[in-house]
Amino acid sequence: MAAPERDTRRPHSPDYGPLAPVRDHTTGLPLLLLPRGFEYISYGWTGDPMDDGIPTPSLHDGMAAFRAGRRGRVNLVRNHEVGGFNGKFTDPAYDPNAGGGTSTVVFDPDDGKFEHSYASLSGTVRNCAGGPTPWGTWLTCEETLDVNPATGRQHGYIFEVPATGKGDPRPLKAMGRFEHEAVAIDPETGYVYETEDDGTAGLFRFRPKVRGNLRAGGVLEMLKIGDATYNTKADPAGTVYHETSWVRIDEPDPGPDVPRPTDQGIAKGGATFSRLEGAWYGNGRIYIVSTSGGPTGLGQVFEFHPRSGRLRVLFASPGQDVLSNPDNIAVSPRGGIVLCEDGSGVQFMHGLTRNGEIFPFAANNVVIPDGVPGKPAIAPGDYSTREWCGSTFDTIRGKWLFANIQTPGITFAITGPWRNGSL
Length: 423
Prior knowledge:
423 residues, mainly beta, 5-stranded antiparallel sheet, 29 strands, disordered N terminus
């Protein structure tokens, strides 16, 4: 019954074609709707035992793919947006009572097989998104300002996790303490662009003292547009901001009596956005998602040129039936953009061209009527309204798109005739 409604609400890609149910090679269930010729396998469901004996944590979120070793494997470092202080799931742990962190998944792109997985960092809170670095690590971000009442540990930091092995449980405090979402790094300068998931958010830039060595410290700055504080929230597609600059944040890791970095930046004329979430480097640009921005409040996609400082609104959702609150973002090896939806109704993963043309590429069709054999942690139910997260392409041949459905917590590897369209 839902399929005809989707067809009338959302035109399909003229290149890839309409979406239809496709069965998972792992379970046989039609978990996704994809264009003709595309197929996928699922892995790492919540509760599945990893190779270290630890159950796969829940709430799969941001993720990136890395070339790993000489055997042509791809390592995926995957966030788990687990909150609360009910205990870590592995070592190393920043806070022994915090349940968030990352896991690492190994994939063979030639055989199309997931090989194994293991826990790589714990003791954090609400690891929402993050981003890959040019030097082969994952920056995982805490989307919180929680303080553990038992240990007194503050949260709201960025941590670094290598593509192989375990992460560093020491927070990168010079990069700021706020409700982090994602990061994107300009490979020429090593500057890290950071987003903040807040109703009144700033876009930050971290200039490290030593390129590739974030622990050596650096300067945290917030974007400024024009001469005074400017609010981008209602700006439509096509808006261009020519006069951009950066203001320094004097206290990136503020104590209880010091304003948060965003308020420090606003006091110096920093610009504001409505819930900045996904960020990704590609095509020589930084792409940034405002989940609640635009004239309809349903999302904007910004494009920033690191060299010129030119910022523009590449796309703004005109309505619920086109794009409903985008979140994570990625750029394909062929230059197309992938947007993960986190709004209402059936959730789509969209393609976006560099010209600002949008189309639905995949739909969440996860319905578990009687449970999945061998997966007791997965309750029966309709999960098709749950968000997409963690889209990322393999870094070897660009044949595989990896993505997560946050709840019930599943990782997918999707492949097919990418060159038929912009992705």
